[in-house]
Structures are given as C-alpha cells and as structure tokens.
Specification:
Pfam families: DNA_binding_1 (PF01035), Methyltransf_1N (PF02870)
Radius of gyration: 15 Å
Subcellular location: Cytoplasm
Number of strands: 5
Largest sheet: 3 strands, antiparallel
Active site: 123
CATH architecture of the largest domain: Orthogonal Bundle
Number of domains: 2
Shape: globular
CATH superfamily of the largest domain: Winged helix-like DNA-binding domain superfamily/Winged helix DNA-binding domain
Helix content: 25-40%
Catalytic activity: a 6-O-methyl-2'-deoxyguanosine in DNA + L-cysteinyl-[protein] = S-methyl-L-cysteinyl-[protein] + a 2'-deoxyguanosine in DNA; a 4-O-methyl-thymidine in DNA + L-cysteinyl-[protein] = a thymidine in DNA + S-methyl-L-cysteinyl-[protein]
GO molecular function, one term: methylated-DNA-[protein]-cysteine S-methyltransferase activity
Length: 156
C-alpha cells in the first residue's frame, strides 16, 4: 500500500481542497477543511494548478499520475469513470452494463462512493437514471456546480 508522503491544502472556488500523494501518483483529492501537515511535492502543486484550471473552465482533461488504492472491482469502476467524457453524465445502471455487470448497479454505486480522487476520477458525472442528482461526498451543491461548469464549457 502506498502511504501518503506528500500533501497540500489549497483554496478553490468551491471550497478548501486537499491532495495527498506518494511517489507513484495521487492518492486522494477531496474537499476537506482539515489541516495538512505533510510536505508538498511538485505533483501536489501541479494537481492544485490543474484543479484550479479545471474549476476555472480552462481544463477539461487532467494529466496527472494516479495511484488510488482499492479493490480490483473498485479500480475497474474508477477506470470506467475516467473514460466518461467531460460534460457527459451516466447512471449507475449504465455504468454497470458498460462493465459487463448489468445487475450490479448497487455495487457500482458503492465503488463510486469509495472514489478517493474526486474531480479527477469524475464520480460527479454519475447521476440518477431519471436525471436527478444522487449522492456526492463533496455535497450535492458542489456536484451541481461541477456539472454546470462542465455543461457550460463542453464542446460539441
């Protein structure tokens, strides 16, 4: 397991964000007000720069090494999330079907909820089958803001 060796806490337009990293890549990106007592490295600073550019509507694809920790099933779900285009949304059932597990929508939902690298692994792009907003660890107002941001800047 890769333990965080580096960290950075920084302000964004949606609140305080934190990144945690190891030598292999990013371990965690989340909205978190807690203090960060880890030293920052170049990857942490680059992640903060890219998050700021994304939230400013200037970046649609992140270019950062990722090292999320999870089960093989969670890793597969997170990889599927990474394949969702900027500005697009899906629902748990469609995500389950895309992974060849059409009856596993609840398990997919649990894996999405365990995503440690918010924004970059875009779990905010998963909505209810009926188009409603569903859970987001960063809160539904942030999820709405992220979806609105992407809708406003997505190219056809």
């Amino acid at each position: 397991m890769n333990t965080p060796h580096y960290g950075l806490r920084f302000d964004t337009s949606l609140g305080v964000c934190q990144v945690r990293a190891c030598d292999a890549g990013l371990l965690r990106v989340c909205f978190d007000e807690a203090a960060c007592d880890l030293p920052a490295n170049a990857l942490c600073h680059e992640a903060a720069r890219q998050v700021g550019a994304y939230l400013g509507g200037e970046l649609s694809v992140f270019d950062l090494p990722l090292a999320p920790q999870g089960t093989p099933f969670q890793q597969a779900v997170w990889s599927a999330l990474l394949a969702l285009p900027y500005g697009a949304t899906t629902h748990y059932g469609a995500l389950a079907a895309s992974l060849g597990r059409p009856t596993a929508a609840r398990a997919i939902g649990a894996a999405v909820g365990k995503n440690p690298i918010w924004l970059i692994i875009p779990c905010h792009r998963v909505i209810g089958r009926d188009g409603s907003l569903t859970g987001y660890a960063g809160g539904l107002p942030r999820k709405r803001a992220l979806l609105d941001l992407e809708a406003a800047h997505a190219t056809a």
